[in-house]
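Input set for joint prediction.
Command: fold jointly, output C-alpha cells.
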Amino acid sequence: MTTDSGAISDVAETSTPMSRAWRDPRFSPANLFRSYGGLIAIALLAYALLVWAPGELTPFRLGNLGKYCCWAIAAVGIGLAWGRGGMLVMGQGVFFGLGGYIMAMHMKLEATGPGEVPDFMSLYGDGTMPFWWEPFRNGAFTMVAIIVLPALISFLLGYAILKRGVKGAYFAILTQALAVAFSTLLIATIKQTGGFNGLNSFSSFFGQKLNKSTKQDIYLMAAGALIICLLIVWQLYRSRFGELLVATRDAEARVRFLGYDPANTKLIAFVLAAVMASVGGALFTPLVGIISPSNVDAAASIMLLAGVALGGRSTLMGPALGAIAVGYGQSTLSETYPTSWTYFQGALFIVVMLFLPGGLASLWTKLKGLMPTRSPLDRRPVSAALAVGAEAAK
Amino acid sequence: MDALTTPLLTGSATGAILLMAALGLTLTFGQMGVINMAHGEFLMAGAYATYLTQQVISGSGLSVLVAIPVAFLVTGLLGLLLEMSTIRWMYRRPLDTLLVTVGVSLVLQQLARDLFGAQGDPVTPPSWMRGSIEVAGYAWPHRQLFTIVLALAAVALLHAGLKRTSFGRRVRATVQNRELAETLGVTTRAVDRSTFFIGSGLAGVGGVAISLISGTNPTLGTTYIIPAFLVVVAGGVGQVKGTVIAAFAIGIATAFLTDWTSGSMAQVISFIAVVLFLQIRPQGLFTVRTRALA
Amino acid sequence: MSVGKARRTLGILAVSAVVLSGCGGDSDDASAGTGGSASGDSCASGEAITLGLLNSTSGPMAISEQTVRDSLLLAVEEINADGGILDKQIEVIEEDGASEPAVFAEKIEKLLTEDEVQAVFGGWTSASRKAMLPVVEANEGLLFYPVQYEGLEASENIYYSGATTNQQIIPAMDFLASEGVKTLFLAGSDYVFPRTANKIIKQYAAELGIEIVGEEYVPLDSDDWTTQVAKIAAAKPDFVFNTINGSSNVGFIKAYTEAGLGADKSPIISVSIAEEEAPAMGADLTGQYASWNYFQSVDNPENETFIKAFQDKYGAERPTSDPMEAAYTSMYLYKAMVEKAESFCVDAVNEASDGVTFQAPEGLVTVNGENHHIAKTGLIGQINADNQFDIVWDSGEPIEPDPFLEGYDWWNSEAE
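C-alpha cells >
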C-alpha cells in the first residue's frame, strides 16, 4: 500500500537519471517507510504464516491455509500483471494447472514404480505411457519444468498476443478462452492426463511418504513460496521496471514515444505472473491430493481474480491477503450457506469493482485519511495528461 | 458428397446460433467498449422466456414465434436494468466493467437455479419444426433451417436499422466519434441505453433458438459466451458484416473439425485458430474507422 | 502462544483485517473440534454417533446430488425412529462438495479429522470419489458411494452401493444380444465413465457378434449434438448406446428427434437417464430403454414403503431413482454391518461386511467383503408415456460385483 504510492510518485518527482531512479537518495523516515514499509508487512505475514499458524492450527486447517497460500501465490502474479501492468489475465488457471499437472505427473510416476505405467493409463488406455511423461520421473527435471515450462509457454503466447498490440478487453477474453480450451483439452485426453478425474492417488512427495508431517512441510513450502514471491514483487515495484510497467499501464502511447517497447515490459510481467501461478499450482497438488480440470477452467481462473480484486490489485499485499480471505470465505461460508456461496461471490465482484476498484487496501488508505478522496488506482500522475489517448486506444 | 454437405449444413446452423449470441455483443462492445460477461446469461434468460411462454400458451404451434418478441423484450429490459444500475457508472473502466458483469452473471445463474431449479426445463419444438428436408442426401432438420432464417432476419433488421433510420445514424455517429456526435446534438446517453436494450434483446432471440437445441438450464450461458466473444473478436468489434462472416466460418469449421477429429478437439482447435488469426489481423476481419488515436 | 495473544500481536501488525478474522476463525473451530473429541476414545462411546453427508448442494452437480442427500436423510430419520444403530441415535453433519473434487477432498478430511464422524456418505462424479479416496484411506475412515460408476476400483475404505460395469453395462449388452441387435452406435460425453464403458462395450460386442458402427463424444458441457447425430442417422444402427452425462442428454435427444430418429428406427439404451431426467428432455422418449438396478416401478413391498415414505417427506410429485435408492440402501447396509460387527470400528465393520444382506427397494442386495461392492440385479426398463419405466428384462438373480471384470475372458484392460 505504502510502497505503491512510493513507486508511483517517484516517477513524477524524481528528476535524477533513469538508471538511478530506483535508488531513493533521501533517507528521511517518511521515505524510509515508503521504501521499506512493504518489507515490514511481508515480515509480519511471514511471521503469521510460518511461525504462528503451524503452532496454532490443526493439521486439517493448516492444510487448508496452505491451499489458500497456493492461490495467493498465483494472486500475487495477477496483481503484477493486472494491477500494475493493466493486463486483465482471466486465464491464470492455465498456468496454475500447468504447474499442478507437472507436479502431479512426477508424484504419479513416483507412486508407480519403475517399469510400470500410472494406473489410469492401463485402466482407460492401452497401458502405454506417452513419451513426454518419461522425463518427469526425474525430480530435478520436474522442479525446473515447473518454472521453465510455464515461462516458455507464456512467453510464446504473450509474444504472439502482446506484440501484435492485442490489449484491454481483447486480451482478457483471449486469456479466458485459453483457460476454456486448456480444460477441454485435459478432459478430452483421458489416456494421457486422466481426463475429467484429473491426476490423484499420490503416495509420496519427492521421496517423502505423504503423511501429516510431510504435509506440514509442504504447507511451509507454500507459505515460504508466497513470501518469496512477495519479496520479488516488492523489489520489482520499487525498481525501474516497476515504474515502467505502471507507466505502460497508464499511458502506453507515451511510453512508446519515449523509446520503450511497451510489449516487452508487459511480456516480462505476464511471464512472471505465469511462473508464479505455476508454482502455486505445483504446491496445490500435493496439499490437496488431486489436480483436475475444474482447478484450471474459466471458473477457477475467475476465482483467482476474486481475491486480487478484493484485496486491492495494485497493492503489494492486497492480492495475497485477498486470495487467502476468499479461500477462507469459500470454506466457511459454503459450510454455513451452501447454496448462497455463488451469490456472495457474484456480489463480491459487483460491489468491489463498482464502489471500491482499489480493493479493501484502498479502503484502509481512505480511512486513514492519507489520501483524502481518491483510490490509489486513480492517482495517476503520469497518465493524467495522457488518459484521453490511453482510453482512445482501447 | 455426404461428408461435405452434412458438416456444411449443420455447421451453418451452429454458426447461426453463434451469430445471434454474438450480434448483441458486438453492438454493445463496439459502441461502448463495454464487455458484458453476463451476455451469456441473457441467452439463458431468453431460453427461460421461451419455456415460460410455452407454459402460458399451451398449444406449442405458435408459442415459439410468440416467444421471440417476448424474449427480446424480457432480456432487453434486463439489459437496460443492468446498464442503468451499474454499467453506466463505469464506461471509463472497461476492464472493471468486465468483472462487474462476471459478478452479475454468477448472480443470474444462481437466481435461475433458485427460481427454476437446477434441472433444466423442457422446451418443445412445434410440430411444423419437426421433420426435415432432403439436401444432397442429408435430411436437414427444419429446426436448423429455422435457426438460420431467424439469425439472418435479425441481421437484416439490425443492418437496415443501423443504415436507414435516424436512430441508426446516431448509433454510428456515436461509435465513430462520441465527442463529435455530442457536439452535433446526439444525446449519447440515450443512444447508449437504446443500444444496450437492443443488444441484450438480440441475446434473448438467440436464447429462443438455443432453447430449441438444449431446453433451458442455469449454466446454458457459460457454454456460449466464450465462443461468442471469439466470433466478435475475429469479426472485428462493432462490425455486423464481420460478425456474420466470422460466426458462420467458425460454426462450419467446427463442424468439419468435429467430423474429422472429435467434439473436444474441434473446440480446442477453433480457439487456437482465432488466436492465430489475430496474429494476421489484430483488429479482426473488419475494423471500425474511428478518428481516435490508435 | 494463546489465540488471544496471537490475535493481539497480529492486530498490532495490522497487515490486514481480513487475514486476521480468517485465522482467528480457524483456530476457534479447531479448538471446538478437539474439545468435542473427548467422547471418541473407543470407536463410538457417546450417546449418539455422527455420520457425515457429503454431497454437492451447489454447482452443476447439485441437482443430482441433492436427491441423494434427501434419501440419505430419509434413511437416517427412519433408523433413528426405529431406535438408531446399536441403540445409538444418528446425528448427521452435512457438508457441501460444491461440485468440485478439491472441495470434496477438503470436506471429507474435515469430517474425518475435525468432526470424527464414523462414516461418510456421498460423492457423485468419479472425480469426486477419486479425490476422496486417498483422504479416506489415509485417515482410515469409511465412505459409502451411491452411484453407478466405471468400475476398475476397490478400496478397503469405500463401499460402492451403486452398480459397477458388470451390473449395468454388461446386462445392457446381454439385453441387446437377446433382442437380436446386430449394429450398435456409441454416443457419450467426453470423460472417464463413457470412455471406459465404451471400451468394455466394444470388447463385449466383439464377443457377442455385434458390430460397432460408430463412436462419438461431445465435451461434457456441450449441448450441440447435431453433427454427431447426423452420423447416427447416416449409419442407421439397430441400437444407440447412450453414455451421455447430465444435461448434455437434452441436446442429444432433441437432435436425435429432429433428425427423424426414434424408438422405432434406432432405439436408444441409456445408462444415465432415470425417472428424474426423463421428463426434462422436452421430447417424447416413449419406447426408449435404460439399464439400472432400480426403477420406481419395481414391484415389491419394500419399494412401496420406500416410495411412500419418500413422497410423504418430500412431496408426491417427486420420483425415486436408482442413485437415490442406492444411497438409501447404503445407509441401511451400514447399519446392518455395524450390527453384525457389534462395533463402529472400521476394522470390525470391514471384517463383518462380507455377506451382509438387506432387503432393499430394488430387491435383495448382498455386500461382497472382498471388493466392497454389492451384488444386485440388473434391470432394463422401457420408458412409457408417464415417464416411468416398464421393466422388460432382468438378469434373473443378483449379479456378483466384479469391478475389474476378472471373470470375463474377453476382457483385456490393455487393449485399445
